[in-house]
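Internal tracking record. Fields below are filled automatically when a chain is submitted to the structure queue. Please do not edit lines marked as system-generated. If the sequence contains nonstandard residues, flag them in the REMARKS field before resubmitting.
Queue: standard
Priority: normal
Entity type: single polypeptide chain
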Amino acid sequence: MSVPLLITTTFESRVDADKMATMLLEKRLIACAQISSSVSSHYWWQGKIVSSEEYLLVMKSDESLYQNLEQVIRESHPYETPEIIATVITHLSEEYRRWLEKELRI
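SYSTEM-GENERATED OUTPUT FOLLOWS
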């Protein structure tokens, strides 16, 4: 495994978050996905501060898969400018690392 990543994105609906998680799992671009209950998001959009309810999708993957993962999210995401944030996982139990590698088939 090169570098394990934690990737996040958000969706307006739980259905869209579920669809994205399933698609990325089926493509083996992620090994795991967690979808939060709705969260209140506040942000700048088109010159105004706006608020909305969103669902946070948190995924585990690997740096070697990131470019393909980002491309699939961009092509399939309903937002004009989707949040796609990848954070390097600096510490990981050996058992979880082995599981991650196995499920990602890397």
